[in-house]
Amino acid sequence: MPGWIDTHCHLDAPEFDADRDRVRERAAQAGVRHLVIPAVARAHWDAVVQLARRHGDSYALGIHPLYTPQAREEDIAQLRHMLEQLRDDPHLVAVGEIGLDFFVPGLDAGRQAWFYEQQIALAREFGLPVILHVRKSSDHLLKVLRARPVAGGIAHAFNGSAQQAGAFVDLGFKLGFGGAVTYDRALKLRELAATLALESLVLETDAPDIPPHWLYATAGQRAAGQPQGRNTPAELPRIAAVIAQLRGLTPQALAEATGSNARAALRGLPALG
Prior knowledge:
273 residues; alpha/beta; eight-stranded parallel sheet; 10 helices; globular
């Protein structure tokens, strides 16, 4: 069985409160050997640290752009303090999840940009890669990264153009692909997953979000009483099988390549022997 790395899983999310350890156990049984658990807000930092340590996984600390409305400027000072305290923790692999979201209406773009730039500065100070939230914001993220380069990282849930993909790769980033690629209608994304250089790809679930097509319930189905399926890290091998088929690879070959890519992006991830 291939050993998979899920480079983006919110195992601390409330959707997993009832069975969090069992979810991790099922992922391991499915061959998912390692998770990266990115935080989204100051209130989550301690939880992701403890979760990663408990299961032998990795974590990232940061403030997600969707959480900037309730974030406070002093959270940046606290983040710096935590990164200083944890800088020798082998489970800490990145600053994240950070970035910009220009898709969700009502968010203050200037406030998002301030938190993003402050966290980029911290990543530079501590020599850490970053895990980026990229939603209708690739060019703005890239502009900052060109001016203030960091130690690479992952552009999570990438769904930009081939040109933008190349720009992230040129800056030392890998591109995260997950459940969205399983939809037949996602033609552009599937083409990217099939044609981008293999060394640029990493795999992720974003669990409990971005469910693959076999878990998705339409609005009509939900209105009729069918629940939305919960995405979990155990879905990663099946998602990976779609990408492997698109690329004409065996799952084993994809697991080995994307695992190596993940370790290159987030230094400190363990080798899966």
